[in-house]
From TrEMBL, chains A, B:
This is Competence/damage-inducible protein A. InterPro entries: CinA (IPR050101), FLAD1_M (IPR056596), MoaB/Mog-like_dom_sf (IPR036425), MoaB/Mog_dom (IPR001453). It comes from Pontivivens nitratireducens. Residues 5-167 form the MoaB/Mog domain. It holds the Pfam family MoCF_biosynth.
Amino acid sequence: MPTAAMIVIGDEILSGRTQDVNVQVLAKALGARGIALSEVRMIPDDVDTIVGTVNALRGQVDNVFTSGGIGPTHDDITADCIAQAFGVGISVRDDARAILATNYVNPERDLNEARLRMARIPDGATLIDNPVSKAPGFTLGNVHVMAGVPKVFACMVESVMPTLTGGVPMLSDDVLIEKGEGALAGPLAKIACRHPDVSIGSYPRVVNGGFVVNIVARCTDAALLEAAMVELRQLA
Amino acid sequence: MPTAAMIVIGDEILSGRTQDVNVQVLAKALGARGIALSEVRMIPDDVDTIVGTVNALRGQVDNVFTSGGIGPTHDDITADCIAQAFGVGISVRDDARAILATNYVNPERDLNEARLRMARIPDGATLIDNPVSKAPGFTLGNVHVMAGVPKVFACMVESVMPTLTGGVPMLSDDVLIEKGEGALAGPLAKIACRHPDVSIGSYPRVVNGGFVVNIVARCTDAALLEAAMVELRQLA
């Protein structure tokens, strides 16, 4: 199965100011495409950390996705970091500038120096479409660089997915059981042993002061998945 | 400033089935205690990955926090992985068993083999209190091992915080500006230059189809922070 990693770039996530919602959006889209998200790293807006993390991960997985730091302000340093990670130049590119210009009635006047930063693209990258606010993301090698704003991120994910080599989609099913995990663990382990090709997870949560458990089974083969689910449903 | 890293352990996060909410809870608690969360990694339920990640991070930061994988079921492997990472033994410990027993009217009958898994604690660890459902977390060296269930995780964070060496708390303030970032970027960069001790971030989001920007300033010194905020508020 093809693999992917995600790098969430942003002091605002690590300070707790902002709740990340992009990981789940990407994870679901990758799962539907048969690509396994094998790691997420959340890191600060720091050049050396970004460059090091990109270079560490791009050799380990088939696809790396970044979110955050590609806007027009002084703290948007991701595009420069990606260029540095790949050892290539970066400059305002005509195709990106033309896309940005469509946002303005009077581009000559409104496409100021700050906004033009969003047309700075590392050499050799291809653009990622941004139907929300035009400013494109880009793909360089196996690294897909996308905006952090959730609405824009989600659209860029949609834009990128068809370009990726997918695998057999992971199927999943689940059953909610109103018991504590302690009462289920023994029989659950036996079911897991009998179905080695099905990944079975147990996810408790607190509802009205008591524990309920969501049992999730995952497998690329529908028949194997259903065979496990038949047994899992009997735990309820 | 003391540093921390978090390891979110769980296939359910990486598959997109579950939205993580624990990162933000920990990030806020650490910030209030003057500890910087410098990295988060989300990794699968895989022994080698967990052991490797714990050992990579515990040498890099002052505190490592893990969430997930300490329940009674077959997929709860975190405690064993921590023992392996530190090269110590793990067994059912009397103090942890006694705490678990308080959950049951008839512990002799109800504290079954699966539930006793939650009393397996690596040698040398100290317990972390869990007022929600008793089953304790634990601290071994500088690694704090906590439950993934958000309600339990949040309580364990409360239990651990007073035991940590804190620093000067990071203060922050913000101003919401109903303009696009492109119009603000120039003056914002100048303000950032004039206040080098204040970290200034610009976080756009889409509201009613248009962009608004939240400008966030962070500093450990209240007077320096306010001096920057005076200028930032004039951007509105």
